[in-house]
Target: Man1/Src1-like C-terminal domain-containing protein
Amino acid sequence: IEAQEYIANVTGSSPARFEAALTWILNSNKDVGIWLKGEDLSESVTTVDKVVCLESAHPRMGLGCRLSRALLTAITTVLLFFWGLAFLWGLLILLKYRWRKLEEEEQAMYEMVKKIIAVVQDHYVDWEQDMERYPYVGILHVRDTLIPPQSRRRMKRVWDRAVEFLASNESRIQTESHRVAGEDMLVWRWTKPSYFSDSER
Model:
């Protein structure tokens, strides 16, 4: 009724013409920007006599409402931008930390390889001088010599990488299986002649 009176005051149209317009909206498949609502807002209106209100599909907002909405949109966009920037910055810090840890681990692995070579070589020299019973030394014995008990768990990955590196990249050390004290164990044997020892150290 309020809409009908408003249209009549503004345009001078008769109530019949207003009802005809509502009928045209109901029968039209076009989106004219006006929704006709009945008592139950969830159900579609099929006849003019059941229409109780009109709803605009494109509501007009006042200046204050537009400014507040634009401000809210801008703040949301800025916050999302800074959240994304913070996430990327955190990811970069994490990757740099990971790279640094990998570099430190690789350096520790090479240091361990040098120590293992020195121990196996010294053991072979001692065997040649009849100071050792066997020309080979147990791998676990070398580990226990180089790594204290409290550090073995922390150094396990470094030790495993060093053992793998020696198996695939060091021709002077040969990995063998021997029975020592009634148990089968993996051992290392120095395969280069002893007269190279002084020049290798």
